[in-house]
Design goal:
about 280 residues, mainly alpha, 2 domains, two-stranded antiparallel sheet, 11 helices, globular, disordered C terminus
Amino acid sequence: MSKIFERLYNGIIKENPTLIMTLGMCPTLAVTTSLINGVGMGMSTLAVLVCSNFIISLLRKFIPDTVRIPAYIVIVASLVTIIQFVLQGFVPELYSSLGIYIPLIVVNCIILGRAEAYASKNKLIPSIFDGIGMGLGFTMALAILGFLRELIGNGTILSDGAKALVKIPEEIYTPASIMILAPGAFIVLAFVIAAMNKIKEKHGMKPAEVPDYTTKEGCAGCAAASLCAGAAPKAEEHVNSIKAKAESAAAKENVKVEAPKPETVQAKEPVPADTGKEDKE
């Protein structure tokens, strides 16, 4: 039971994919123009996370290591297609609002990262709750962003475009429409992450920080670090091989074949001219 609660706490608070690990930023910034959109995207991702973790953990001993990434993508793509059809059939308004971001769940780094980092290495039940925890953390972050952006930018709560659960009269509040645009998404996200850091600091926890992925130490903080860990030595070996060949070719070009030096002709002493006269004794 402690393992289950640990996975839930890890996904919602300790390693929240949006507010702590800053993963899945594309849907986070794009679809959170309203609370309904944020919750809809979060719940769709939650369903895919739980099902993909379940299937991958179940098949972890049967999927060859060399084709694990294509296998994960096939599994996730199949699940996303099912979710897409369900949304299109039962909530077409939400499906139209989310648009292209539903199919893009296939390449969401949160899902592939959890599949590689946890589900492929752990048993079935912990993997399921790991997906639930990460999905709830992602949904919570999107719901907070969607609520704040909708309230500040539109002056409404739970609006579907035609009607809203709560609407602030314009005589009382003038909406700041920038909050439902791209700049507003960055502004609200920055304030929410700052608030999360303050809460963690108050409880003696390390604040969120974006790793420097240009270094090996930075890659260690990436959820998908193990995806490229196997390819790194081969890539480095290939680069070193190319570099050695280039250096060898350059060395051959720089070698100059020295021409044999011509033999030097030694100057002979001048022969005295024959005067035709013999020395007299």
